[in-house]
Amino acid sequence: MQAPFDALSPAYAPPPSLAPRRLFPYECNNELIIRQQPNRARMCGFGSKDYRPIDPAPILQLVRRDEHGRAVVDYQKATTLVCHASLWSADGSEERSVVINPAGLPKRLEARPLQEAQIFSTQPPVEGYVATLCGNLVSPCYVFTDLDGQKTLFFAFPALSVRTSGQYSLRFSLFDIGQDSSHAIAFVLSNLIEVYPPKTFPGMTESSALSKCLARQGVKLHIRTEIRRTSGQVAEEQDDEEEAEPEAYEEP
Questions:
Q1: Helix (H, G, I), strand (E, B) or coil at 207
Q2: Residue 148 phi, psi dihedral angles, 5° rounding
Q3: CATH code of the domain containing 156
Q4: Which of 55, 95, 100 is CA-nearest to residue 205?
Q5: For 218, left (φ over 0), alpha (ψ -120 to 50), or beta?
Q6: Rounded distance between C-alpha atoms, residue 92 and residue 169, angstroms
Q7: Which of the pair, 116 or 77, is modelled with greater confidence?
Q8: Where is the composition biased (Acidic residues) (predicted)?
């Protein structure tokens, strides 16, 4: 005689691929550490060519820990991890993602009747807004050799620019594009960044050992080996991009 149907029986359990899973399976195992804090920038304005990168270029390290709290470098997982940068207020309480572009505002009123909503509206047209932070806002996860010779998971942002002067901070959010969820699984806030008008910008800093280390391995970082300052004028930087061939990547 056939046994009665039991939905709770292991024989009728759904396959593992359909079993419920945690929404954030790696949330507690990821930590973003800012290894190189951004400090200053020259505002780039609203043009499309005069981009001025934030200096120093933000460099982050991802520390992943297993269930025992031990740090691990998961090469397969690194292929699905990305880090996104967004602009926030200096204290990190408000996002500063958009700004009004003066060129997008109407220069004169046209000789035609205005709608009532237009008369009482103080908001600029939608096309008057542009992103305050521009450049490459997303970094893939790099598996590179650290200064101590250990394989490390890095994110680098060598081409971030801010359109307007002021004090800001950067928020870095970690995403796993291999998961169904679109939520960030980790984030970290940078120190205060001072964005200067062109006439008061103190100049770029000399490239750090970490920047040079990643540049040799393939990250397109601007490497500055000499800082030139002229008396009574704004500091100028001497940029020397390393032309050395990136080191070949070796499988672990």
A1: coil
A2: -90, 5
A3: 2.60.40.3960
A4: 55
A5: left
A6: 6
A7: 77
A8: 236-252
- Residue 221 near residue 54 (C-beta atoms within 8 A): no
User: Do 97 and 129 meet the contact criterion of CB atoms below 8 Å apart?
Assistant: no
Q: Is residue 97 part of a domain?
A: yes
Instruction: Answer whether residue 12 is part of any domain.
Output: no
CB 54 within 8 A of CB 20: no
List the domain range (segments joined by +) for residue 81: 27-104+125-200
pLDDT tens-digit readout, 225-252: 765 454 334 444 444 444 444 444 444 4
Counting the structural domains of the chain, the total is: 1
Question: Does 118 fall in a domain?
Answer: no
Q: What percent of the chain has pLDDT over 70?
A: 68
Which residue bears the tokens 């470098």? Answer: 73
Scanning the chain, the segments in alpha helix (DSSP H) are: 75-78, 116-120, 209-216
The distance from CA 81 to its chain's CA centroid, rounded to whole angstroms, is 12
Strands (E) across the chain are located at 30-36, 40-42, 59-65, 71-72, 81-89, 98-100, 129-131, 133-135, 138-140, 142-145, 151-156, 160-162, 166-176, 186-189, 193-196, 226-228, 236-238
Residue pointed to by tokens 């939905």: 7
DSSP state of 46: T
Q: Does residue 71 fall inside a structural domain? A: yes
